[in-house]
Fold:
Amino acid sequence: MSMVYQRVALIGLGLIASSMAHAMRQHGLVGQIVGYAKSPETRAAARELFCDKVCDTAAEAVQGADLVLFCVPVGAMGPLAAEIADHLAPGATVTDVGSVKAAVVEAIAPHIPQGVHFIPGHPLAGTEYSGPRSGFATLFQNRWWLLTPLAETDAGALLRLRNLLQGIGANVEEMEIEHHDLVLAVVSHTPHLIAYTMVGVADHMRRVSQQEVIKYSASGFRDFTRIAASDPTMWRDVFLTNKDAVLDILGRFAEELFVLQRAIRMGDGEQLHAYFTRTRAIRRGIIEAGQDTSAPDFGRASPAAGGGKEDKR
Amino acid sequence: MSMVYQRVALIGLGLIASSMAHAMRQHGLVGQIVGYAKSPETRAAARELFCDKVCDTAAEAVQGADLVLFCVPVGAMGPLAAEIADHLAPGATVTDVGSVKAAVVEAIAPHIPQGVHFIPGHPLAGTEYSGPRSGFATLFQNRWWLLTPLAETDAGALLRLRNLLQGIGANVEEMEIEHHDLVLAVVSHTPHLIAYTMVGVADHMRRVSQQEVIKYSASGFRDFTRIAASDPTMWRDVFLTNKDAVLDILGRFAEELFVLQRAIRMGDGEQLHAYFTRTRAIRRGIIEAGQDTSAPDFGRASPAAGGGKEDKR
Structure:
């Protein structure tokens, strides 16, 4: 694949930025990778692992870059955008990887000077790990990368960014900003909050020791702890900045939960059975869409069981 | 390994029974495997796949068996126990695999004749699949199998059953009946109900299509759909028979969720961050206890990423 950008500036050097760096380099898509992060430890790790150059300020990092990638928690984007505004090269593209899009546009767009292209984005990829040592080149392989272009977005700049993202293996889709935030509240943000809550409940139980919770987590709870182990700062910012959509979905969730809770209290087996039967259909759709494995035991069984292959895509 | 039981009767021939049959046979732990299931289709599949003999009634299946294994939903156990009571061989052991123990003891124990040993049990293993074709021999490998013996349980019979379960690779632990039901309400039953609920909410959304939910499920929601795809009849019975413990935990869950919901509404980032930081510790404990992999991306990334090995135990 040929080079898409000459010089990429990574603002923030955690899981997503380090994975981007490894992926762009592996596919020969960029010339130079320059980085900035707040913490000196992170900067040192990035220098050692995946950056050609690491700067002590964001303003210095973006100088001469034709692509600037914001890879910091949503809450940190506004101040950083203000900081770099005067140092952006004419014709450069600025994008971000925030999980919320309306709030990011509000924070970044006002600082973008005439002649610089701002294209908000969001890769649906991640792990429970964070930091500059957690990245790997295949993180975005076959994952969605949503772009939410603004009305005034330049078609050429958009195409160029798409080329980069497709080059690292992502499936790029465009989406309307408000709709993105609602969809993500359903498929990601609210599930995360619920997982955090359930893990918190287990942590507070007096009659069940934490030792027991850990020991017997195999069925059900284990998946919650994986979700609830994600980066606290990133998730705090997601909930604070996608407040309306999350509160909307949480309200619906509480209603449904109370209906099921009442069915349990009343012993209404028919209602429970009908509900549990409907939810199976969505799962089947996800497997058919190739978003997950159909291996038994969620692919966790030993390979001898025929369940060891996690990903059948 | 040498033979532990001469003749095992499997009552119910779904995921757990078929996995037991494959495992017991593979390790040479039993002589003959006899089965019974309500549905003729299931009986035919079991005859073809893993049973030496399949009977049309449970009473016939248990005749001459020195181990009888109840592998049916909790709600079906009482009537079946009444049906087989007069046909149990003296000295036989009766056990079950129900996810709830107090209700099972209440349903089965009154029917067990003098001289037959009833030892309630519960393997913490399963997949989202069900039926006689879903079983595999390694399902119980390194998984917990909890036994909740009664005060009068015969020590010799208990040891013999432990030998069988350890023989198929399970880690056997004994637990008090009420405590079992509370622990499971925390680590399994309530998480399942919550996952069912979240999947139901997504299903009901008008502004987000089911197509979108499926397409973008990668982060967070996918784990919920896996949990929510489990057998509806089994789970209906779990909630109806472990009602008190589940309602207790659900009440706590709703309280905690409202606290976090309020923090979001009020914009209290500190509280959210502190909460999300605490939940990470439990996750670390689970990885250290060997209950899950620490591979990035939950072990779903391609092997090239170093994350392809799901299970590091």
